[in-house]
Design goal:
The protein is mainly α. The chain is built from 43 helices and no strands. Helix 12 runs antiparallel to helix 13, helix 20 packs antiparallel against helix 21 and helix 25 packs antiparallel against helix 26.
């Protein structure tokens, strides 16, 4: 077949004839023919390739053109074979070019020529260098997935792993999909054993371990190439956070193999080795469920096959095993906690309590705990473990063994001195309970004997056995034993040794002083008080001072008054306000009983300023009471005045009421009214209605209209003073509004004006019957002045010994006061 040559092709023909081995000439000719018919273009390509058979550029363009020409055609079209032949011819010369192979392989794969595609891909892999295989294998893998031929696919995946071992997960997934579980497990195990393996799916080694364990436990009969138990146990060592699940997987493996006894052994081993409560809970729950299912299965078999002696025995055995398992749960859980921290004393004691009624197990537990716990790492009080161990023998009437335990316990290098002191004290108490008094004294003397170099109590470089001699607990027990079993001299020596060691507490001072006082060593007792006072500061010295002062006053009374005063002054020096009250009261009582009354009043006066703010009111009340008893009520006026100046508002109001009542009883009405006026600034009418009621009662009984009106005016002003919230502030026209609303204050003012107008009218009627009475509403001020003048004339005419009569009659004034009292809430 010869292609026709157009006139436009002549220049290109001449050029390729002149330069037949020039690629550019042929490419220009090809570009010229590109938009024309395909056959002439193919002929140009064929001519060019005949001259240049190794030109990759021409071959690539030619093959691409021929491949595009097959689009939309069926696989049976002859053109497909022509394209394949072109590729084959190209590969004769360009068999090392990966792009030609890639295009050719992809073309064959797309045509679904399975065998030819597989052969072509194999040829490509054989022809290309191994560094270019990574470009062919994706096509090969997609071809395998598209045409799933199990055996061929497995061989291909194995070949691919030789090139890319990091893609082992691809083969694992395929093996799982075709249920080649044994090979999948083996390959997964190799990946886990390879430290350099990195999952391209983003899985961690932990996740892969879980996947492997799950695969092994769920398919025990399909996986035979590897040993399951060693693999899972290796996972238990590597992944401690998944211990519970791994143990369950291992037991599940044997359950699926119907090896129930082996599964039970695995569960038993798991509950005895897990380290966390969470893992224990997981394993124990599955273990209990496993036993329940076995029992249920046995019951179902018995119901189907009937009862036999063997079946009944086996069922009873399983029920008993399950019951014992549930009883063992607290003990197993305690074992888990002890595996977490074997130095936890409290958990060891709990374990002992779990063996109640089993002496041998209790002794073994105590022994194991003593051997296991390191005193320096102990959590809790290690001494308590030794003490409880000795008590166990004592309760079982084995005093000799208890003494052996105590003798070993006092040699233990405890961390704290208090723990060794506890051991010694319980050792001594054990001897006392069995009436071995000499042994008790011997032990307490041994414990309190100081070493030659006498180290400090807080010197941690020294063992506690060298520092326990400074334990106040042991010395207090020593003093009690000497007081009970020894004589006065030995007891006193013990107390003096405590003081010399400077470890005494205020209670020890009180006990020693009380002992000396019982033996009538009063002066020596007072010296001990003074020595103790010198050892402590406030507030620890409070009990010593109060006891010392009380004892001294009781002992000497007024015989040593000056010395007693000095002691009180020393006690009050730097005394905190919190503790001053009791000492001042004792001081004042001393002055009242044995000194001068005025000195006692001076003490009370000092006390009112020295005590706490909360106690000042009570102190003033005591001061007033004692002043009244000693000098009379008139002497209390200056005290009341001082209280009003010193106390806070609430207390000052109470004292003001009492002061006013006192002046009223003495007939000093003006003084009482002044006190009420002064105290009113502390009394909010909205809250202190009792104060205003008392003042009102006072004015009703002893005042007149002017004083009553003045009281009301003060009440209004005080109320306005305390009205700090907007809800209590009245608008500018409040008087009119209040009167219109029936305000009691406005109504009271109207009532007073009305009464005064009536009085004025009555007076006018009496003095001048012919005079016409004016209306109150026309001129209230004139009526008021006229009423006052006429009232004065009547008072002059009646002449009541210079005493001015009230403007309002008593019965009318009483009614007004009663009305104010009834409307008091409204006024407020």
């Amino acid at each position: 077949m010869v292609a026709e040559i157009d006139d436009s092709d002549v220049p290109y023909e001449e050029e390729v004839l002149r330069n037949s081995y020039n690629v550019k000439s042929w490419m220009r000719y090809i570009d010229h023919k590109a938009n024309g018919p395909k056959i002439p273009l193919y002929m140009v390509y064929e001519r060019a390739l005949k001259e240049l058979p190794c030109s990759y550029k021409i071959w690539h363009k030619y093959l691409s053109l021929r491949r595009r020409g097959t689009r939309g055609r069926s696989i049976d079209d002859p053109e497909m074979n022509r394209v394949i032949n072109c590729y084959e011819r190209a590969l004769v010369f360009l068999h090392k070019m990966p792009r030609i192979w890639i295009d050719y392989c992809q073309f064959i794969v797309d045509l679904n020529y399975v065998t030819k595609a597989r052969h072509t891909l194999d040829r490509a892999l054989r022809s290309l260098p191994i560094t270019q295989h990574c470009r062919i294998w994706p096509i090969y893998l997609s071809f395998i997935k598209k045409h799933s031929i199990k055996e061929q696919a497995l061989r291909l995946y194995r070949r691919y792993l030789q090139l890319a071992p990091d893609d082992a997960e691809i083969l694992i997934d395929y093996l799982l999909s075709v249920e080649h579980l044994d090979e999948a497990a083996v390959l997964l195990t190799k990946c886990l054993n390879d430290e350099d393996f990195q999952s391209k799916k983003g899985q961690s080694k932990h996740q892969m371990w879980i996947q492997l364990c799950q695969l092994l436990s769920e398919n025990p009969n399909k996986i035979t190439s590897i040993k399951v138990e060693p693999i899972i146990r290796q996972g238990l060592q590597r992944f401690t956070d998944m211990t519970g699940k791994l143990w369950i997987s291992l037991a599940d493996y044997y359950i699926r193999k119907h090896q129930f006894d082996k599964a039970r052994d695995i569960y038993e081993e798991a509950v005895k080795t897990v380290m966390t409560v969470r893992d224990f809970g997981q394993v124990f729950d599955v273990y209990a469920e496993f036993e329940e299912q076995l029992i249920t299965l046995k019951i179902e078999n018995r119901n189907k096959n009937g009862k036999t002696p063997d079946n009944e025995l086996d069922l009873q055995l399983r029920l008993r095993r399950f019951e014992k398992l549930m009883q063992r749960r607290p003990l197993l859980l305690n074992s888990v906690l002890l595996r977490q921290n074997p130095h936890n004393v409290n958990e060891w004691l709990k374990r002992v309590s779990l063996f109640e009624g089993k002496p041998r197990e209790i002794v073994n537990t105590y022994t194991e705990a003593i051997k296991t716990i390191d005193p320096k790492l102990a959590t809790g009080k290690l001494s308590l473990l030794w003490i409880e161990f000795a008590k166990f023998y004592e309760e079982n009437k084995q005093l000799k063994e208890a003494r052996v335990i105590f003798d070993k316990a006092v040699l233990v290098p405890f961390v704290k001195v208090d723990e060794l002191a506890d051991v010694w004290s319980h050792y001594i108490e054990t001897e006392l309970r069995h009436e071995c008094y000499e042994e008790a004294l011997k032990h307490v003397r041994t414990a309190t004997t100081p070493p030659p170099h006498k180290p400090s109590y807080f010197d941690r470089t020294e063992p506690v056995q060298n520092r326990v001699y400074r334990s106040l607990k042991l010395w207090s027990m020593y003093a009690d034993l000497e007081e009970s079993l020894g004589d006065f001299t030995t007891t006193k020596n013990v107390y003096y040794r405590i003081l010399d060691l400077r470890i005494a507490s205020p209670q020890v001072i009180l006990n020693f002083s009380g002992l000396l006082e019982e033996k009538n060593y009063f002066e020596e007792s007072f010296k001990i008080y003074e020595r103790g006072i010198g050892m402590f500061k406030w507030p620890l010295v409070y009990d010593l001072w109060t006891t010392y002062l009380s004892k001294f006053v009781t002992r000497y009374g007024g015989d040593k008054l000056e010395r007693a005063r000095d002691l009180f002054e020393q006690a009050l020096d730097q005394c905190p306000e919190k503790f001053a009250k009791a000492i001042f009261l004792l001081y004042a009582k001393l002055e009242e009983d044995f000194g001068l009354k005025r000195h006692a009043m001076a003490v009370y006066n000092r006390a009112t300023q020295a005590v706490l703010k909360e106690e000042q009111a009570e102190m003033f009340q005591i001061y007033i009471t004692r002043a009244t008893a000693c000098f009379g009520v008139t002497h209390t006026r200056q005290i009341y005045e001082q209280a009003l100046e010193t106390l806070p508002d609430a207390d000052a109001r109470v004292f003001g009421q009492r002061f006013a009542e006192l002046e009223t009883k003495l007939g000093e009405i003006d003084r009482a009214r002044s006190i009420y006026i002064h105290t009113s600034q502390f009394a909010d009418p909205r809250q202190c209605s009792e104060f205003w009621r008392l003042w009102q009662t006072f004015e009703v009984a002893h005042g007149n209209e002017d004083t009553f009106r003045e009281m009301l005016r003060i009440k209004r002003s005080v109320r306005d003073k305390y009205s700090t919230q907007s809800s209590f502030n009245l608008p500018p026209d409040a008087d009119t509004t209040a009167a219109a609303a029936g305000d009691p204050m406005s109504q009271l003012q109207k009532d007073v004006q009305f009464v005064r107008g009536n009085e004025q009218t009555q007076a006018s009627t009496v003095t001048n019957p012919d005079e016409i009475a004016l209306d109150d509403d026309e001129d209230d001020e004139d009526d008021e002045e006229q009423g006052e003048e006429e009232g004065e004339e009547e008072e002059k005419e009646e002449g009541d010994d210079g005493i001015v009569k009230q403007c309002v009659p008593d019965e009318v004034f009483g009614k007004l006061a009663e009305k104010v009292h009834q409307d008091e809430d409204g006024i407020e």
